[in-house]
Amino acid sequence: MVNYQTRTVAEILFILVIVLSVTSILALSMPTKTLNAPLVVSGAAFLAAIVVAASILVPEFKGAPWVPTSQRLVAKVLTMAELKRGELIYDLGSGDGRLVIAASRDFGARAIGIEIDPFRVFYSRLRISRLGLRERAKIVRGNFFKINFRDADVVVLYLLQQTNDKLQSKLEKELKPNCRVVSVVWKFEGWETIKADDEEMIYLYRPRMKKNIR
């Protein structure tokens, strides 16, 4: 349902882009003297629509659409992870940074969010700075498939099942034995579930580690 909702919004924005594109093309074909405020507004709206559409579509293509997590669910995820002061937690696809902020502010952890959308990265960093959490919290703009998590104590994911499936082998190779992985909604097949909240669909794992073959 999450994925379809996101695509619906993207489709609406795509239609908006098409309409505004036609308007802009017509505006450019008109003599300069005939340009007026409505056309300028249409051009600005066109650019805004492109920005918003990219902000929605890019994260989905790279791993999962952005779906805001309630503060209540964030607290449950961090509590289930048994996050301790000073531990290092990664949030893969950190969105607006709310879990990173909660982990550092409320649990005293070191928190790193990985987010590919530059607009949410900017917004998250702004919030972290405003709250005075820069010593314990940061947002990295990048693709979490290209980042090594060997130093993680906790990894949190709220992605898609196919993204979890792609990440599973990578996490098995990189994570240290005592690392905890918390996945919201989607599961990891073959890993032992340490805790589960089926009502909230939160699952805590200690990933099965793959032996290095020499």
Q: What is the element layout, followed by pairings?
A:
Elements lengths: L1 H28 L7 H26 L8 H10 L7 E5 L5 H9 L3 E6 L2 H13 L6 E5 L12 E4 L3 H14 L5 E5 L7 E6 L4 E5 L8
Structure description:
The protein is an alpha/beta fold and 214 residues long. It folds into two domains: 2-62; 71-206, Vaccinia Virus protein VP39 (Rossmann fold), CATH 3.40.50.150. It contains six helices and seven strands; from the N terminus they run H-H-H-E-H-E-H-E-E-H-E-E-E. A seven-stranded mixed beta sheet has the order 3-2-1-4-5-7-6, with helices on one face. Strand 6 and strand 7 form a beta hairpin. It is globular, with a radius of gyration of 21 Å. The model is unreliable at 1-9 (pLDDT under 50).
The mean pLDDT is 81
- The assigned CATH architecture of the largest domain is 3-Layer(aba) Sandwich
Give the overall form. globular
Kindly provide the radius of gyration, computed on alpha-carbon positions and rounded to a whole number of angstroms. 21 Å
E-strand count: 7
CATH topology of the largest domain: Rossmann fold
Distinct helical segment count? 6
What is the CATH C level class of the largest domain, in words?
A: Alpha Beta
| Major sheet description | 7 strands, mixed
